[in-house]
Amino acid sequence: MAGEATVARSKQIALWIQPSGPNTQPRYLGCHDVEDIVEPGGASNLLLCFDHGAPSGYKVVGSTKEPPGPIATAITTFIRETADYLEDIACPFTLFEHWWKCGKPDVFTNYIRSFAVAHLEIGDKTLAGMSRRSEDVESTQAFAITGWPPVLRLFKLGVMRQSTAETEGLNDIAFCNVPKCADECGEAAGVCEDGCAVGDAAAGSPTNEADVICTADSGSVWTATVTDPFVGGEDIASFVCFYVGANTIRRVVARGTTDGGAPAEIAYSDNGGTSWTNVSMTLTPGGAAAPVGQFAVGGNSLYALDQYHIWLVTTGGYIYFSDDGAVTWAAQEQGAISAGANFIAVWFANENDGFAGGVGNVVARTTDGGATWSGVTGPAAEAANDVQCVTRSRDTNIWWLGYDGNTRLWYTTDDGVSWTQRAFTGSGVALGEVADIAFYNDLCGFMISNTAAPLGTVHHTIDGGYTWEALTTPANAGLNALYVCGCNSAYVVGEALTTAVILKVSAGS
Hints:
The chain is an all-beta fold. The protein folds into two domains: 10-42 and 68-155, Pnp Oxidase, Chain A; 159-506, YVTN repeat-like/Quinoprotein amine dehydrogenase (Methylamine Dehydrogenase, Chain H). The protein is 0% helix and 44% strand. The protein contains no helices and 38 strands. It has strands at residues 13-18, 27-29, 32-34, 44-50, 58-65, 71-78, 93-99, 113-128, 140-147, 152-155, 158-162, 170-175, 195-201, 210-215, 223-224, 236-243, 249-255, 265-269, 277-280, 302-306, 309-313, 318-322, 330-334, 343-348, 354-358, 362-366, 374-377, 387-392, 399-403, 409-412, 420-421, 433-439, 445-450, 456-461, 469-471, 479-486, 489-497, 499-506. Strands 1, 2, 3, 6, 7, 8, 9 and 10 form an eight-stranded antiparallel β-sheet that branches.
């Protein structure tokens, strides 16, 4: 029927593996059969009570859910003179089944949609048809494999600009709500429904105050909060949010402009921005005030794992920490590592492991939650450039740094002892930058880069950072920050182009 969507056929499925796992070169497997991929969902068990009035004699009072088991499948191929990639694999690897339509199947980014399974391991190996009286059967080898759930369902993504009345540039964005099913605690909620973006002071307005704009419907409508957290002329650099009660979300913002007579400052709200509590940095909780004039530089200056683990990096090379929901702060690092140069970005993989980076290729590392920080030598090629962003792949020990100066991306697998550059479309652009990078898991991630113009581009990876695909990005005047919602979903904010730029990345765009 005309207009019907194309249905996948087996000859349009291209098989790829990453023999060495995420952020390594994918290998194309031609002439291989993949058996059905079974993804256990975990059985539901009913909780029953006697009820002699019910037809069955029981009533259902609830249920429990068993955890899912491993994903299972098998790959079969002919035996050839040379070894198959699967014969030599001894460590966990990744499998991709790309549905392609046009062009060649042996181009990794040529897919309409894809199914991926990570952390696969080979179990039983079967050799079949090895010796026969006739030649009507080919010799084959089969590999039984199991992996971690879930199967990742990946799509080609589009980028769409959302509408907002905000006229100033936006520096950061984050979403706050926990996805849930409808229950006694409230209505169902999806991923990335409730979030906020923060930006610069509204130059020329009567109050000249920077806005916090929020959405409760995944960005269909963005509305400024009732009050603003800082006084006129002060930008908001960074934003995080976390739960401090069953249904109470605390929103925390960092001042992005110096106040020459005051230390660095944050503000927090527990009522959606109806009111804000302002807090200045101190060297110890309740102790001496921090140096005056400091501020947060950009969208990556503030990071929160939860209400008990929050970090803020500032000008002057200071790193501050709060363990009580941003109410009190203490200085963990006081400019010694950076020699007073500004820190720009901080990111933690867990409550202990973190990196910070800043001006002049300054990189700092902690493995004890910031109780002690030590300097790390960044990539030698970036000696004159600044770290704009830092992150880590979720289930690996691959740390990433993005730089300005020449739009370059680097990673380390040994905690900064050595660094490797990862090229991508648009990398190496003079005076450009990698503005932000974030991963959803160890395969899926997003990155934004800007040219010197500036003009920003959104990039997407599904193989842990080895391959970055540049997405067609709407017109903009530079992109500043991103928030990842899933393998196929992210939000990006940037400088104003008549109005503020908010981009939604999704399969439906």
